[in-house]
Design a protein that fits this description.
- By secondary structure, the chain is mainly α.
- The chain folds into 2 domains: about 400 residues, Up-down Bundle (Sodium/glucose cotransporter), CATH 1.20.1730; about 100 residues, no CATH class.
- The chain is built from 23 helices and no strands.
- α6 packs antiparallel against α13.
- The longest helix is centred in the middle third of the chain and has 50 residues.
- The protein is globular, with a radius of gyration of 23 Å.
- The N and C termini lie far apart (about 75 Å).
- The relative contact order is 0.17.
- The C terminus is likely disordered.
Length: about 525
């Protein structure tokens, strides 16, 4: 029998006090950038395109490491086995970021892009396509932000032994996230991300080593693994396909693809490529991001595949909260609080990035672009930022409906309602960056058809042959994108502007700022 720890009232109140201190710290940091971002949409949305390599790496990584990661990886590994590690398809996608992100950065510097819709609308010379993509991305950002708030609510409630009710916890989390984004935009979010990654990685390490040291002081992880393997009810966790047989090779492929897409074309990751300070950012990301992923996800997998089943056995009723349950019931109160900090670090960062991305698309692409830019009218930057802040409030209010009716399994929720739909912009993005013959008609046919397929196989029909809705949607999307593009024609000026010119910049090896900064200045002064 493993030692259990009782949470005293004093410990609970100290944890609550710690939460309040964290909330105050984040709020003050955001307010410090309020004036800096109020008059500049460039500062509010992209931190003046001046994020250094390490800050961009940390900001990108922690935005991928959401509440889904800190709670979802241990819980899903415990429930479905080590095959869930395939969710780290982001390792592979890191290489795509270096190639795709570098080209997007050049385009952002050249033409002032700040959102995914900016590029896709202009590359495919279609206002209708841009409108469709913007609406699609904004709609499915909301469920994923909701996931983060749900995990925070569950974490606070579990850690404080229900002293803080779920409703109160999610309200506090929502106010924190919304106020921080409204206050400082990306200038606040990017620097707080750096702090959050260090905090989150350190917290996960402390939880892992505390559980290992308390319950397996002599044999360590080897002893814990042996306990898991010797128990017929838990042994399957450390095998493939695992207890429920979910991760056969098809399930593994489905999961890996979902993880890979998350790191490339999710709106908040896509937009970050425009924010790099120099091309050095992408060199650093090429080697640093995989190391960060491996370190943090590896520790979470050890907790879910070895420590959790060794301590709890099989059949834990609510695996979604297995991380806070272990740190609260089987570790001292300080470890429970540290675990909660890890959750805050990952969930808050991801929520803020997605919220900022949604507000930028809703304000710039759905409102300002259509109401002012298409009519040849100028709009003051202060007004753009003000509109974005109002939209943040609207999105947070909409999200609360989902949060109050949370689903049973947080990982299913995130994957079914966000990743597959975001993924439908991938063929058009890659084709738009590298293929001269990619046409408006091909992009529309591929993306719309992919969304229809994903919708049918997610909500109405079981996806055939054991492949996921995402995989089927990507297949249909890519085939139609290529097929329709081959029988239609792209204007020559589009190919020159978005393919040939970028190829020339890259092949000549000139510093991008020497070539494009003048273009940006001319555009601003026009």
């Amino acid at each position: 029998m493993f030692e259990m720890f009782e949470m005293s009232n004093t410990s609970t109140y100290m944890i609550i006090a710690g939460i309040l201190i964290y909330v105050i710290f984040v709020t003050v940091q955001g307010m410090g950038n309020f004036k800096k971002t109020s008059g500049s949409s460039e500062a509010f949305f992209s931190a003046d395109r001046g994020i250094s390599p390490i800050v961009l790496v940390f900001s990108t990584a922690v935005s991928v490491f959401s509440g889904l990661t800190i709670y979802g990886f241990p819980s899903s590994t415990y429930r479905d086995g080590i095959g869930f590690f395939s969710g780290t398809g982001s390792f592979i996608a890191t290489l795509l970021i270096v190639v795709i992100g570098y080209r997007l950065w050049i385009l952002g510097k050249e033409y002032g892009f700040t959102t995914p819709t900016d590029f896709l609308r202009e590359r495919y010379y279609s206002e209708g396509y841009g409108l469709f993509v913007a609406i699609l991305l904004v709609i499915f950002i909301v469920p994923y932000i909701s996931l983060q708030v749900i995990t925070i609510g569950d974490g606070i409630t579990t850690t404080t032994n229900n002293t803080v009710p779920y409703v109160v916890a999610v309200i506090v989390a929502s106010l924190l996230i919304g106020s921080h984004v409204i206050s400082g935009g990306m200038k606040s979010v990017a620097w707080m991300d750096t702090f959050h990654l260090v905090l989150g990685a350190g917290a996960v390490a402390i939880v892992l080593f505390a559980l290992r040291g308390i319950h397996f002081p002599e044999g360590g992880l080897k002893e814990a693994a042996q306990i898991v393997l010797n128990n017929p009810d838990t042994a399957a966790i450390m095998s493939h396909p695992g207890p429920r047989g979910v991760y056969t090779w098809k399930g593994t492929l489905n999961n890996a693809l979902t993880g890979a897409v998350a790191t490339v074309v999710w709106p908040h990751i896509f937009s970050r490529q425009y924010m790099a300070k120099s091309k050095e950012n992408f060199k650093v990301m090429a080697w640093c991001l995989p190391l960060v992923y491996a370190l943090i996800i590896g520790m979470l997998m050890i907790i879910g595949a070895i420590l959790a089943p060794a301590i709890l056995g099989s059949g834990f009723e609510n695996p979604d909260v297995i991380m806070p349950y272990l740190s609260t019931k089987y570790a001292p109160p300080i470890v429970a609080f540290i675990s909660l900090l890890a959750l805050f670090a990952f969930a808050v960062s991801t929520s803020e990035s997605l919220l900022l991305s949604a507000s930028s698309m809703a304000s710039k692409d759905l409102y300002v672009h259509r109401k002012y830019e298409l009519k040849g009218l100028k709009v003051d930057d202060r007004k753009v930022v003000k509109i974005s802040r109002i939209i943040v409030l609207i999105l947070m209010a909409t999200m609360m409906f989902i949060v109050m009716n949370k689903p049973a399994a947080i990982t299913d929720y995130a994957y079914k309602l966000s990743s597959p739909f975001f993924a439908m912009t991938l063929p058009a993005t890659i084709g738009g960056l590298f293929w001269r013959k990619g046409t408006k008609e091909g992009a529309i046919a591929g993306t719309v058809s992919g969304v229809i397929v994903v919708t049918l196989f997610t909500f109405f029909i079981k996806a055939p042959l054991g492949f996921s809705a995402l995989l089927w949607g990507m297949f249909v999307n890519a085939v139609l994108y290529v097929g329709v593009s081959l029988v239609t024609k792209v204007p020559e000026e589009i190919s020159r502007k978005y393919i040939d010119r970028i190829n020339t910049i890259i092949s000549t090896g000139q510093e991008v700022h020497d070539i494009v900064d003048g273009t940006v200045k001319k555009t601003k002064n026009a």
